[in-house]
Each structure stands twice: as structure tokens, then as C-alpha cells.
Specification:
single chain, 2 domains, 7-stranded mixed β-sheet, 10 helices, globular
């Protein structure tokens, strides 16, 4: 990965989060970008998909230390942007010195009912000082995370490499499958491209990822949810759809056909999740 301004922004975030790194998992677009520097990844002839924000998965029982995450973020140049009317309000942590608009969001699994006894939605909570949004199925992204070391050798600003956790590729793909019905047309099309590119990146390791799914992730998921994931190859990629066509258009510089996207996603997901 080359040295870009967003790498410097991400390095600032990791520096702020350093005391909690063993318990936090990078998910979303930045997890996908980090896959490209993992030793198991195949170097692709195109750059990873771009994203301005970093999604950080936070376990509900995160240990409270002498400092909290919010104070360390502020000390490293991040500013709170409060959104919505939830209590506490959903918050973006934006890096003030960033030239790219970089910001971080913190996300926590939603367990049980979506509403409390008072009828209010359980949308957010404050964990270790930061506001974290509660999302369904997020716990999958905390299961069996992979690690990667980032430093100057792969485009980041640390002299001594720092080891960070990122979502297991099987978890990453399973989560994309589970949330598709909640996504807008454009976001789901981009998710399809994430699925396609992740499968292409780890094409030589799909059997290894299948074993991780079967032994480390699948046993922790409700059988009904497992069935939805196992059916994704046919349910989502059994035929051409407008979302698949839009995903191919997003990658127009690569000359990808919609049928190629559909076929690769179907085959790859079946190899990982199929019975």
C-alpha cells in the first residue's frame, strides 16, 4: 500500500486507540484496505476501494483504563460531531487536520430487543468515553479477527510497526450478506464490489477461509442466520440484478462485466459458505 494522506489519518487514529488495540476490530472499508497488505492476500492490479471513514467494532465489555478513548482522540486532534436525536447522540470523530475528511465511528453489537422497556430504541451507548452505535449482526465482525502489522514498510507513519485487528474475511463477507436488505441501492452495489474484490484478493485461500468459517464463526451464530448466509450465493447472485450491474459500472476502469461479477461472487461465496 503506497503512502497516501488517508494513511497518515488512519495512523493518527491508531495512535489514539493504541491502549485498546488488542480488544478493538477494524471493520468496513478500512478492513478491506488492510486485507491488501496481509501476507495471505494476492496483489491485485487495482487499488482497494476508497473510504473516508473508519468503522471500529467495540465489544460491549471493553475495559475501562486510566484514560478513556474520547480523551485520547481529542488529544490527537479529533473533534466530536454529534448527529441525530438519540441519547447520547450518534457521533463522528473527525480529524481536524485531515485533508481527506477522515473520521471514525464506533459500533457495538445490538443484543436482544431493539427497544427498551420505556419504548426507546437502544441506538447508542457510551463505552470508554466514546459514543458507539448499536447495530444488529455486528458481533459477527468481532469473531476470530485477523491481525496485520502496519508501519513505514507498508505506507504508514509508525517507525515501530503496530499490530491491529481487522475483521476475519469470512465475517466480513457474512456481514455484507446479512445487512444487504437494509442498504440503499447504491450502498449495496458497493458492497457487492467489496465482496467481489475480497474474494479475488484471497482466491488462493478460500478453502482456508472456509475452515475458519466452519470452526471459528459458524458455531457462534444462530442456525437461522447461518442458513441465510449459506443461501447467499444463489439468493443474491443466482441471476443478474440491477445492483450487480451497478457494481460493475462502479468498476468501469477494470472493464468488468456484470456477469463476471455475478459469477465470481456466486462461486466464491459457495466455496466458503456452501454446504
Amino acid at each position: 500500500m503506497s503512502d497516501h494522506p488517508e494513511n497518515e489519518d488512519f495512523s493518527r487514529l491508531i495512535l489514539a486507540l493504541e491502549p485498546w488495540l488488542p480488544n478493538l476490530v477494524i471493520i468496513g472499508g478500512w478492513a478491506h484496505r488492510l486485507y491488501s497488505i496481509h501476507p495471505s492476500a494476492r496483489r491485485l492490479p487495482y487499488l482497494p476501494l476508497m473510504t473516508l471513514d473508519t468503522d471500529v467494532a467495540v465489544p460491549t465489555g471493553l475495559q475501562v483504563l486510566d484514560q478513556n478513548i474520547r480523551d485520547r482522540l481529542v488529544a490527537n486532534g479529533f473533534k466530536e460531531e454529534r448527529l441525530g436525536r438519540d441519547n447520547p447522540p450518534a457521533t463522528h470523530y473527525r480529524l481536524g487536520a485531515s485533508k481527506t475528511g477522515f473520521y471514525a465511528e464506533f459500533l457495538t453489537p445490538l443484543s436482544g430487543a431493539a427497544h427498551g422497556r420505556d419504548g426507546k430504541t437502544k441506538a447508542t451507548s457510551r463505552i470508554a468515553g466514546v459514543v458507539s452505535q448499536h447495530l444488529r449482526h455486528l458481533e459477527i465482525l468481532l469473531y476470530a479477527p485477523w491481525t496485520v502489522a502496519i508501519g513505514r514498510s507498508n505506507g504508514f507513519s509508525f517507525g515501530d510497526p503496530k499490530e491491529i485487528q481487522m475483521a476475519n474475511p469470512a465475517s466480513f463477507l457474512a456481514h455484507k450478506i446479512l445487512i444487504y436488505s437494509k442498504r440503499s441501492h447504491g450502498k449495496f452495489a458497493k458492497d457487492i464490489l467489496y465482496i467481489h474484490d475480497t474474494l479475488e484478493m484471497f482466491g488462493a485461500r478460500l478453502e482456508d477461509i472456509r475452515r475458519e468459517w466452519a470452526t471459528k464463526i459458524k458455531p457462534r451464530i444462530h442456525p437461522k442466520t447461518v442458513r441465510k448466509i449459506e443461501r447467499a450465493a444463489s439468493d443474491l447472485f443466482g441471476k443478474l440484478t440491477d445492483a450487480i450491474r451497478e457494481a460493475a459500472r462502479m468498476a468501469d476502469s477494470r472493464k468488468l462485466s456484470a456477469e463476471a461479477v455475478r459469477e465470481r461472487c456466486s462461486l466464491g461465496l459457495n466455496r466458503i459458505f456452501g454446504k
